[in-house]
Specification:
The structure is a homodimer. Chain A is an all-alpha fold. Chain A folds into two domains: about 1-55, Arc Repressor Mutant, subunit A; about 65-255, Tetracycline Repressor, domain 2 (Orthogonal Bundle), CATH 1.10.357. In chain A, about 65% of the residues lie in helices and about 0% in strands. Chain A has twelve helices and no strands. Chain A has helices spanning about 10-30, 35-45, 60-80, 90-105, 110-115, 125-130, 135-150, 160-170, 185-205, 210-215, 220-225, 240-255. In chain A, helix 3 crosses helix 4 (about 90-105), helix 4 (about 90-105) packs antiparallel against helix 7 and helix 4 (about 90-105) runs parallel beside helix 12 (about 240-255). The N and C termini of chain A lie far apart (about 55 Å). In chain A, about 40% of the residues are buried. The structure holds a DNA duplex (30 and 30 nucleotides).
Chain lengths: ~260, ~260
DNA sequence: CATTCCAGTAAACACCGTTAACGGTAAACG
DNA sequence: CGTTTACCGTTAACGGTGTTTACTGGAATG
């Protein structure tokens, strides 16, 4: 009957060990090493089988680490967004997406762990990741705010493919669906399309299936982002050029930070 | 000084063993097993170290297998395209892209091997894969034919980002650049954008980072494909609706074949 | 015929995830 | 307080992986 935050001395120690496992794993990953139970255990001054007191198997540990990496990455996205005022969710979104790209390119293995792992065939734990992704909630939260503050053109429910309609009415994506009226749920389809575009171009860049010079110049990413302004109702003057300028500024900022 | 097709008895045997290695690996992969040197060797009635007479290391074998998988997949794309007349490259392209998607969803591991493996940090062998991908040549070949037969609107060279301009003038993508005048090389940028869209949506679907119902219905894929018709100059009446109908027909065809 | 080359082998190394049986220590209970 | 219980971590071991080393046998070459 003890909740996850039980105050027993035992529980606290256990929680601390959990945290150390994850942080050790992340450190190991950041240093270019492979993510292995034995390596984690060794660095913690522990033997590998001991980890099985905390994790059922290797995949569960990977999922745990992936979730935490996603959470940490989200704070970076939020920091980028925070450079723009709270009453400018569109500007914040643009900054966040640029941060997403630069994080992914700088940490390809972490990106692969979180976003390029098959989740369909995996256990329920991983399936939950579809709806519990921290970064997803953050991005979708910004989209929701844009929707509430300036509106986003979207198809009516009966214009949608039946299966898509079912998906937006009972959404399986990281979003607080109660923030959007059922009648307006068509906007979730726009959100999904936007996510697809961002995910697609970043994955292509991270995996390098494209001319390196095009990746380096961020031209493909810029083009993909621009292509999503009209469907989000953000292309009209003066908003469109303003957001394009913000994107260019964020990309330049990151380029200056790199070398 | 012997070329790769030397006619010595020795060379022929060696070539045959190479082929057997790859085919064994593909069979193993198709049966759901992991791709390991030992498993391949065992199935060939050989010990694992013997494989090192043919392959420098594991990654090289993976690359070899990936290349062959790509080649085999391309014949499937070509078969789909062949259902449409040769003077209809646009229809062939639509059919090929639908085949690409259905192949990827049906063979996620093969897809991951070929298209979701990092190639930036790898050896030169893998970097060659950027320009030698069989499937890439096939798809780009269809795009080139569309360009020659009906034209594709494209930016002039001086409208392009400098790095993109360099990339289209000395292309590092699977295409026969000599088929396109230097002055028209801006169309390669359109090709790259089209590839990005196809790659992005299919990768998203294969990795399952989206509501399963949306994947199942192919709605996201359809939307992504439709979005690429205007930039390819294929959206005008009656060509646009015709191609959309072809896409729908191909998707329905595959759906009927599945269960 | 003699030589050279080379595919393949056996043994070993250093890893990996995972399981089993066991010990000691700290919390929980009477 | 003493006793019991629960749990963290250990050691040993199994089967698996990629990879290297030294060696062998037979086929192609001179």
């Amino acid at each position: 009957m003890t909740s996850s935050t039980a105050s027993g001395r035992r529980e606290r120690q256990r929680e601390a060990t959990y945290a150390e496992i994850v942080s050790t794993a992340r450190a190991l990953l950041a240093e270019g090493g492979e993510l292995s139970l034995r390596a984690i255990a060794q660095r913690m001054g522990i033997t590998a089988p001991a980890l099985y007191r905390y994790v059922a198997n290797y995949q569960e540990l990977v999922d745990l680490v992936a979730f935490e990496i996603d959470k940490a990455a989200t704070t970076r996205f939020a920091e980028a967004a925070a450079r723009y005022p709270d009453d400018d969710p569109a500007g914040q979104l643009v900054a966040a997406t640029a941060a997403f790209r630069s994080w992914a390119l700088a940490n390809p293995r972490e990106f692969g762990l979180v976003f390029a792992n098959p989740i369909a065939d995996s256990s329920c734990v991983r399936r939950d990741l579809l709806t519990s992704a921290t970064s997803g909630h953050f991005m979708n939260g910004l989209l929701v705010r844009i929707f509430h503050e300036r509106g986003i053109p979207h198809p009516a429910l009966d214009e949608l493919d039946p299966e898509v309609r079912a998906a937006v009415l009972d959404p399986l994506i990281p979003i607080d669906a109660s923030a959007i009226d059922e009648a307006d749920r068509g906007v979730l389809w726009i959100f999904m399309r936007a996510w697809q575009t961002l995910y697609g171009v970043v994955t292509l860049e991270v995996f390098g299936h494209m001319d390196p010079r095009v990746i380096e110049s961020a031209a493909m990413f810029t083009a993909a982002m621009h292509s999503q302004l009209p469907p989000l109702g953000l292309d009209a003057e003066p908003e469109g050029p303003r957001l394009q300028a913000i994107l260019a500024a964020e990309l330049a900022r990151e380029a200056a930070q790199k070398p």
